[in-house]
Amino acid sequence: MRLTENTIPSYCTVLIIGGGPAGSSAATYLAQSGIDAVVLEKSVFPRNQVGESLIPNFWKFSDLLGVSEKIQQEGFVVKSGGIFAWNGQIRQVDFSKFGHSRPGLHVERDIFDDLLLEHAQSCGATVFNQVVVKNVDFSDPLQLRVSFTDKRGEANAEGSIHCEYVIDASGHSSFLAGQLGTRQTVSSNLNFLSIWGYFNNTQYLGVDRQSHTTDYLKVIPPVTFVMSYADGWIWHIVLREKTSVGLVVHTDRTKGMNKAQREAFFKETCLAAPYLNQLLAPGEYIEGSLHYRPDYSYYSTRICSENYYCIGDAAAFVDPIFSHGVQNAFYNANISTLAIKESLKHRRNRGRYSQLCESRMQQFYGFSRALALGDYGCNGVNRALVKPLMKAMPPLELELLFLVSQVTNRSENFTQLARESGVWPDLDPDTSGQGTETIELFL
Ligand SMILES: Cc1cc2nc3c(=O)[nH]c(=O)nc-3n(C[C@H](O)[C@H](O)[C@H](O)COP(=O)(O)OP(=O)(O)OC[C@H]3O[C@@H](n4cnc5c(N)ncnc54)[C@H](O)[C@@H]3O)c2cc1C
Question: What is the Å distance from ligand 1's center to 137 Cα?
């Protein structure tokens, strides 16, 4: 049951902006350590969110958060991996062949994110919905003042709260990076955007490479279906009651279009795309379900300091083709709260802890970027940071990434970095038999 708090306190140790996966898990880690954490969230949960495909790595973090059982009980769609139809070649990836004993999931993010936030509350974090953070005043570095607008009452109320640390988990609005002027666009020729919507009664692609009605979801596990489209790509993610379908395209493709034109472009593209049109054929588009995200590829030059940490999408956004977003949010929440906990114990080392955290987080974002878009090579990837991470990876994880880097033509930068680091495995993706293989679809 959701606990409700009325009065926002005037002080807390850590103030968290945003209650998505990054913010809620940071709040849980802190509350579990007895640190008073307050989350200010501008919307009313449950709220809509995109990003429904979760790779099995997320269980490592849900275990640490103590929320795995609640996730299992919710009964989300269990997926078996992915099928990538890319420029004429179709490949299947099966995580279970790479040491993952638990599956990936397709989750309704409103339900998933709400479950995480409620868990944070049950662990002792204090959460306020409908409170929008407006400014962080850093003039006293040891006691920050966070101003907000409280929208819960009839009239908006302005207020402020003092804290020792701020965690910015505000998602793609990157609140602090905006205030501090540290937000950068990755590169103009990598300017992609996403348009997505939802369909009822579609078919899905199963682990057996055949299409099925959703009656079979529990019998024949689905895969996340990804296909190349022009200079971008398309996803098909079946959920319990509907299917999420999205296009990732260069911004030029929809330049000058209004909302209705974008919707028409979306529907036309879905119906023209091979395989996808067959899966969608029995279904119908849910009118009004179209969403649009133009500000797609960004990063921040500084994400951690002595008194603030930017985590999840507030730190950076990487093209979600390999579903790294939620996992990165979980990871960042984990290490930033570790840094804060250690800083509270050894205050004179706070600068050192924040630097370590910064380089670790930039390293992981660089790694994800290298895998998601080849051209990131000179922009937004710190090559010197990424290479040691590759060298430190367990062999099975590296093998999975090697094979994943072969399913699209987007991972040239990753391939190059792996070769330079001397970690490129001696594997042939077609003959290794290690969990990805070239296949045919029977739709
Ligand atoms: C098109 C697309 C497809 C994606 N697909 C996938 C996928 O399949 N798998 C995957 O893992 N990831 C995917 N992602 C990425 C994933 O959605 C994000 O990485 C993830 O939601 C990040 O979590 P977060 O907590 O950082 O941010 P969010 O989930 O965005 O949460 C941020 C919260 O902060 C609140 N907030 C914002 N500003 C303020 C403020 N000023 N004051 C108070 N509250 C504020 C917001 O209301 C929001 O609830 C996708 C992203 C996009 C755009």
Answer: 24
Ligand 1 atom 50: residue of nearest CA: 51
Cis preceding linkage at 46, omega within 30: yes
Q: Looking at residue 433, what is its pLDDT?
A: 46
Instruction: State the distance from the centre of ligand 1 to the C-alpha of 22, rounded, in angstroms.
Output: 8
- What local confidence, expressed as pLDDT, does residue 431 receive? 52
- Residues lining ligand 1, Cβ inside 6 A: 17-23, 40-43, 47, 49-54, 132-133, 169-173, 175, 194, 196, 246, 293, 312-314, 320, 323, 325-327, 329
Rg (CA), the chain: 22
Residue 255, amino acid = K
Residues of the chain with pLDDT under 70: 1-5, 187-190, 374-381, 426-437
Look at the domain 11-52+108-184+298-350 and name its fold: FAD/NAD(P)-binding domain (3.50.50)
pLDDT at 44: 97
| Annotated domain spans of the chain | 11-52+108-184+298-350, 188-293
Which CATH class for the 188-293 domain? alpha beta
One-letter amino acid identity for 390? M
d(CA 217, CA 408): 27
Residue 40 alpha carbon, nearest atom of ligand 1? 43
7-33 burial code (b ≥16 CB/10 A, e <16): ebeeebebbbbbbbbbbbbbbbbbbbe
Q: Under 8 Å CB-to-CB from 284, ≥6 apart: which residues?
A: 199, 200, 201
* Predicted confidence (pLDDT) per residue in 365-417, tens digit: 888 888 887 654 445 567 788 888 888 888 888 888 888 888 888 888 888 88
Which atom belonging to ligand 1 lies closest to the Cα atom of 314?
26
Contact between 281 and 251 (Cβ < 8 Å)? no
Each residue's pLDDT tens digit, 330-361: 999 999 999 999 999 999 999 999 999 999 99
In the reported structure, the alpha carbon of residue 147 is separated from the centroid of ligand 1 by a whole-number distance in angstroms of 22
Question: DSSP assignment of 356-391, as one string?
Answer: HHHHHHHHHHHHHHHHH-GGGGGTT--HHHHHHHHH
pLDDT the model gives residue 97: 83
Residue 296 Cα: closest atom of ligand 1? 53
Ligand 1: which atom is nearest the Cα of residue 323?
A: 9
Alpha-carbon 227 to chain mean position = 19
Mutational test site, ligand 1, from 170, 238, 266, 364, max ligand atoms within 8 Å of CB: 170
Ligand 1 centroid – CA 155 distance (Å)? 28
- Whole-model pTM: value is 0.95
